[in-house]
Specification:
It is built from nine helices and 22 strands.
Length: 483
């Protein structure tokens, strides 16, 4: 094995003794790419469903809508991005073109765009610029189904779609994600003719060559679809990952728009590819703004619950915020999102494991372990992780808090560059001079949040109960939700 010299003193806020000349565990494949590691760091970001549907009070347009209908009265890109940032979002994905084919930028390849609307401004440019100003990542959704274009369903359409993708990837700055949902044909107003066009969503779009275009133009962009290749759909639009949710899947079994939703929800173990889940859901019943839904915005507590069922299960949380007909995020949506962030910030502001005395043992109970070894960290900080001897697959890690602490949330993270190694864990509290089991979980990955009744104890123990290889745990944190 490779050997590196390192002196480690902490696992997040809790630390073991110093250790030097540690052996690094061999990665357990498949593992994440650098662009996937950067995506994992985001955890919570937003979707902006905003197009001509906003002004027709519909969810899907037919493609026959006049560009004259698109005319927001008080469009404010900074207000939109600011509302998302105030709610804790680290990125925004804009519906640059939905299924109706209307483009929010003045594409040189079609007349069906903002350039022929009364508004005439480049919405994509203004949102991407506002994101850059406010330190929010910018992403795009370019529907592959176009109910307006004359060539949809024919081979010539692919050149049109890729030309528009090239515009978005070369003229609007860095793009952190492209959302590809495999929307695939049906009725439309194709080139001025009402008819139905069917396609084979497994072959028609020739996704491998489209994805290669993205790789060539912006190698750091992650690609989302049922098949990845970087991020997968979670299998529902309710924002809920499986209680067991692996970051791996057998991508050869899937195609955009063609997948087993139960497998998407849980992932595949073992899996051939690292393709973590993205949990999409709207803050309202619909994806586009409808005035009659102003009093149906999800409550802050509902958003908190969704956070635990997405980020808390190793996936990401993609929450839709639909701008209204003014071109702003409605006050009700913004208010709920701000309160959601207040609750999350209050919960995770204080790690009650900070300063704990940590002891570790492997399954043989001889106290030997790798202690903490250095990590390749994206944000520039110096993280560490705990790992055991290679043959110690069911070790434990005990935290002595020094005094009784009350918590109801435990956060556990694996060190992702070494793969998803742990399959099951148990948590114990110290009570009446013995260990008492209080919770358990399966997949961990980038983040596992175990949330339950409040527990008061002076000692906590994490037990790895099932793993094919030795663990590599980068965080064990204890937190309390505000009363």
């Amino acid at each position: 094995m490779n050997r590196r010299e390192f002196v480690g003193t902490s696992l997040s806020a809790a630390g073991l003794a110093r250790s030097t000349f540690v052996e690094l565990p061999v990665p357990y494949p498949p593992g994440p790419s650098p662009r996937q590691l950067a995506w994992h760091e985001l955890e919570f970001y937003g979707f902006l469903h905003f197009t001509i549907n906003t002004f027709t009070n519909r969810e899907w347009g037919d493609g026959d809508e006049s560009p004259a209908l698109f005319n927001p009265t008080a469009f404010d890109a900074d207000q939109i991005v600011g509302a998302a940032k105030d709610g804790g979002m680290k990125g925004l994905i804009l519906t640059c073109k939905h299924h109706d084919g209307f483009c929010l930028w003045p594409s040189r390849y079609t007349e069906h765009s903002v350039k022929n609307s009364p508004f005439r401004r480049d919405v994509v440019k203004e949102i991407s610029a506002a994101c850059a100003r406010q330190g929010v990542r910018f992403g795009i959704y370019l529907s592959p189904w176009d109910r307006n274009h004359k060539d949809y369903g024919r081979p010539a359409y692919l050149a049109y779609y890729r030309n528009q993708l090239r515009e978005l990837l070369t003229e609007y700055g860095p793009v952190f994600e492209i959302f590809c949902d495999g929307a695939n044909g049906g009725d439309g107003y194709y080139g001025g003719v009402y008819e139905r066009r069917e396609i084979d969503n497994r072959t028609y779009y020739d996704w491998p060559n489209t994805w290669q275009l993205v790789r060539d133009l912006q190698p750091s962009t992650v690609l989302f679809s049922d098949a990845g290749p970087d991020v997968r759909w979670v299998g529902n639009e309710r924002g809920i990952a499986g209680e067991t949710c692996w970051a791996t899947q057998n991508s050869a079994d899937f195609a955009p728009g063609h997948a087993d939703v139960e497998r998407l929800n849980r992932g595949d173990r073992p899996g051939t590819n690292w393709v973590p889940a993205e949990c999409d859901v709207s803050i309202r019943p619909g994806w586009f703004y409808h005035q009659h839904e102003d009093d149906q915005v999800k409550t802050p507590q509902q958003l908190v619950d969704l956070y635990y069922s997405s980020v808390g299960r190793g996936a990401s949380f993609l929450l839709n915020l639909p701008p209204d007909r003014r071109g702003r995020i409605h006050e009700n949506d913004a208010r709920s999102l701000r309160e959601f962030r207040r609750i999350i910030d209050a919960t995770f502001a204080t790690n009650l494991a900070a300063g704990a005395r940590v002891s570790a043992s492997n399954s043989r109970g001889n106290g030997r372990d790798r202690r903490f070894v250095p990590g390749n960290v994206l944000d520039g900080s110096r993280l560490t992780y705990w790992a055991t001897d290679d043959d110690a697959k069911t070790p434990s890690l005990a935290l002595d808090l020094g005094q009784p602490r009350t918590f109801n949330v435990v956060r556990i993270r694996e060190y992702l560059p070494l793969g998803q190694r742990v399959e099951a864990i148990k948590l114990d509290k110290w009570e009446n001079a013995e260990w008492v089991e209080v919770a358990g979980a399966t997949s961990i990955g980038s983040c596992r949040l175990i949330r339950g009744p409040r527990v008061t104890t002076s000692r906590v123990r994490l037990r790895v109960t099932q793993a094919p290889v030795c663990p590599a745990i980068s965080e064990v944190g204890l937190f309390a939700e505000p009363a």
